[in-house]
Amino acid sequence: DAGVIQSPRHEVTEMGQEVTLRCKPISGHNSLFWYRQTMMRGLELLIYFNNNVPIDDSGMPEDRFSAKMPNASFSTLKIQPSEPRDSAVYFCASSTGTGYNEQFFGPGTRLTVL
Amino acid sequence: SQQGEEDPQALSIQEGENATMNCSYKTSINNLQWYRQNSGRGLVHLILIRSNEREKHSGRLRVTLDTSKKSSSLLITASRAADTASYFCATDVPQGGSEKLVFGKGTKLTVNP
């Protein structure tokens, strides 16, 4: 079975540009999570979807960040405009049931904003 | 705010030795999970222990949970170089109807061959 798929794996962009990160969860999983990992702040939950509906977006840092889940097999995280402090590794994870269950992580997207 | 915090932040041992990592948390939990992250990779789930369990085993892993002390430990026995990774504990945090995991900052384990 394919795990969680993320694209791109690496993204280098300039400040002010729009960045779109993509995620395909494991088939049959109904919860999807976007995390951001940095050395300083560790792993932070940005947003959590259940059955394609955003349940908790309290971790989204500011209006420059937005996330969508148009269907059960695809989600995007968009940053517009990007800033150097957005540089981090962004992970997508999925699980069955609620946010308390075992989560399966994708390989991550390493974002560098110059 | 940080719910779970691992201790130590870094641990270096020789192959064959046991490695023990600890996690402390602040509020009551339903379950606690441990994850491993190899360098440059996503996190991988290792084990889940429920609040009514005191100890759980999986291969060379042993996890204990002491809810009275709000702490958990992960023991890796007979460590191997391939165990080199960061290890994270994650606790469930009910917030306004949202059920989510909160991860600690991890323990970086290095197993020297």
Q: What does this protein look like?
A:
The complex is a heterodimer of chains A (114) and B (113). Chain A has 114 residues and is an all-beta fold. Helix content of chain A is 0%, strand content 54%. Chain A is built from no helices and eleven strands. Chain A has strands spanning 5-7, 10-13, 19-24, 31-38, 42-50, 53-56, 65-71, 74-79, 88-95, 104-105, 109-113. In chain A, strands 2, 4, 5, 6, 9, 10 and 11 form a seven-stranded mixed beta sheet that branches. Chain A has a four-stranded antiparallel beta sheet with strand order 1-3-8-7, with no helix packed on it. The N and C termini of chain A lie far apart (36 Å). Chain B is mainly β and 113 residues long. In chain B, 0% of the residues lie in helices and 62% in strands. Chain B is built from no helices and eleven strands. Chain B has strands spanning 4-7, 10-14, 19-25, 31-37, 43-50, 55-58, 61-66, 71-76, 85-95, 98-103, 107-112. In chain B, the strands form two sheets. In chain B, strands 2, 4, 5, 9, 10 and 11 form a six-stranded mixed beta sheet that branches. In chain B, strands 1-3-8-7-6 form a five-stranded antiparallel beta sheet, with no helix packed on it. Chain B is globular and about 45 Å long. The termini of chain B are far apart. The mean pLDDT of chain B is 91. The A-B interface holds A 4, 33, 42-43, 45, 48, 55-56, 58, 91, 93, 98-100, 102-108 and B 2, 30-31, 33, 41-45, 48, 88, 92, 95-106.
State the share of residues found in helices of chain B, binned by percent: under 10%
The Cα radius of gyration of chain A reads: 13 Å
Uncertain segments of chain B: none
SS element count, helices of chain B: 0
Shape of chain A: globular
Strand-pairing-aware structural class of chain A: mainly beta
Order of helices and strands of chain A: EEEEEEEEEEE
Multimerization state:
heterodimer
Question: How much strand of chain B?
Answer: over 45%
Mean of all residue-level pLDDT scores of chain B = 91
Q: List SSEs of chain B in N-to-C order.
A: EEEEEEEEEEE
Largest sheet of chain B: 6 strands, mixed
The share of residues in helices of chain A is under 10%
